[in-house]
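OP here, attaching both records as promised.
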Amino acid sequence: MQPYITHPTVFLVGQTYQILFLTETTGQAWVEIGGEKFCDANNGVLRWNDRVHRVTVPCASLDAARSYTVCFQQMSDRLPYRPEHGETESRTYAFTPVPAGTDTRICYLSDTHGLYDAAMTVAAKEPFDLLVLGGDITSHNSTEEDLWLALRISGEAAKGELPTVYSRGNHDTRGPMATYLPSLMGTQDGKTYFTFRTADTFGIVLDCGEDKWDDHVEYGGTICFEQFRREETAWLRALAASDEWKRYEKRIAICHVPFIFDMPEPFGIEKDIYREWVELLNEIGVDFLLAGHTHRAFTVYPNNEHLLTEMKFPTIVASIKREHYAGAFLTYGKDSCDVRITHETGEVTVEKVDFVR
């Protein structure tokens, strides 16, 4: 694998793939697809003093080519004239986009809280088309190893050959290194809420931030998620008012926190905002909301007495972290979704979730 620490992760954001990978040393990097070169650059200058590399490519290019090559040149200093760098070291990967005209197989890993081996055990249980990291991949981001864990999990689970979507969790926002996390995940203009498209699916990724008010003693005055959620709400309003999603028959929303509930304090935050989020997702007509956070697995259907407001879609909460870890495999069809809660021990529970049309 040298100089590469992990297989790349091909994050799906909008109509682009953001290919991220880690290297043992600093240097400059690019990706080659079908004879075209896409650089990890800042306004025309190749980035050289980082071990994290991000290259954005159009989905259409990679979907057509079905392969890509990551390239790296070691560089410890960039001289102003005639800079020197190491030899090009490259690796080529086959790539399979999410298929059209058939059910989508999703591997959902949320709330791993540092359990790399358990996540790998679950991910290996079934083949899948799309990997979704549902947040709380670590319990806090205190070290580089914590920050890199999501890329280690996605790199090994998808092996650089399948697309990945990352929905940030509240624990992902904790710790001294948490401010750097967006640079190690797929984002839209730096934002951790965004949309994505496959051939026949429109996806919406939302981010609740923390699960208590900003002034809670646990955070020590270090967050401003109330403002963040207001900005996100304005974005979601504009999205609902657009026609971006209308061309897609299949529509999905993903969020770490299942914000649909009327929760008690200290978790009963932003009820007006979360009520509006549900109403906007109703308007968009999502088939279901996929969430984690609770460390339990269950499905919530419309007309549940604990909902904040009328919900016209089921919410699938699909991760367990108790005596052992469980993620999920979902087969997402036109009218329903088969959900298989899959434990690291091998136990599987199955539920068919019908969509509300």
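Record two, same layout:
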Amino acid sequence: MAPPGETHGDLTIRIGKYLFDYVEGRNLGRVTAETGYYTPEDRSTLLSPDIAFRRLDPSAEPASQRWVPMMPDLAVAIKSPSNIMPQIRRKAAIFLQHGTQLVWIVIPESKSVEVCRLDASGNIQSEVIGADGSLSGEQVLPGFNLELAGLFS
């Protein structure tokens, strides 16, 4: 698979920085990029979000040198020109069905983000936030807010 382009890399760094600064300043957990996550029940379901956040207990062990044996609380997928939305949405569904609470699908060409989560019945709900909107950390990162106008400028 070919590596992603400059826009993808730029968005990864920007979003990662916003998340890292918020999480680190509050000692909430760990923000990672391009890290493998799987569920202990199904090691064959290995996913690597562009960016992820995972809550940690302050007494948690140091970061693993290997893949993480649980899904992150937040997964961020940044669409590359070689990706198709149905493929990215399938990955979002796998994350959500295995414990991730919130998935952001960043769509650079439309300067928008599709926010995915499970409803109370376990169905996937999504909404698209345009360039004039903002992302919320919802219950995963209470108080986190990212204005998309600054992200896509």
